Amino acid sequence: MKRRDFILTSAALVSTSFAATPLVAAVPYVEGLVATELAAGATVFLDFKASWCTTCAAQERVIEKLKAENPAYEKSVVFIDVDWDEFGRSDLVKRLNVPRRSTLIVLKGDAEIGRIVAGTNEAEIKMLMDRALATTLA
């Protein structure tokens, strides 16, 4: 097999395998969504982010990597993206006392399970996601 044919065949196989297993994107926040999910008994992972925020982008890369490694996260936890530019002054932000964009918060019922502010460390984000997952198994 020629090198060019090998590369083209390999690229086709790789793109096919990724197309077969797409990642489920987080749900965009709308007013009342968090209350509805919590009332239904869901564990909610809130990601307060802005499209222009480099810290938010770094957090998103880590979150997506961890979700790809462990599909149980998306099967059990509701991930909600809160656009900081649109909802940075909302009642949700005030009620949860969110200090800034690039804040990650996990909620279950009336309790806050954990929070990370401006952290991009994979181990810390994994620990928060694992805590979220653990609440769904209890």
Task: Using the 3D structure, state the CATH architecture.
Answer: 3-Layer(aba) Sandwich
Fraction in beta strands: 15-25%
What is the count of helical runs?
7
Structural class: alpha/beta
Strand order in the sheet with the most strands: 1-3-2-4-5
- Identify low-pLDDT runs: 11-22
Shape, per Cα inertia axes: globular
**Rg over alpha carbons:** 18 Å
How widely separated are the two ends?
A: 54 Å
Secondary-structure element pattern, one letter each: HEHEHHEHHEEH
Q: Please report the total strand number as a whole number.
A: 5
Question: Could you please describe the fold and organization of this structure?
Answer:
Keywords: Signal. It comes from Pacificibacter maritimus. InterPro entries: Thioredoxin-like_sf, Thioredoxin_domain. This is Thioredoxin. The protein has 138 residues and is an alpha/beta fold. It has a single domain, classed as 3-Layer(aba) Sandwich (Glutaredoxin), CATH 3.40.30.10. The chain has 7 helices and 5 strands; from the N terminus they run H-E-H-E-H-H-E-H-H-E-E-H. It has a 5-stranded mixed beta sheet with strand order 1-3-2-4-5, sandwiched between helices. A hairpin with a 2-residue loop joins strand 4 and strand 5. It is globular, with a radius of gyration of 18 Å. The N and C termini lie far apart (54 Å).
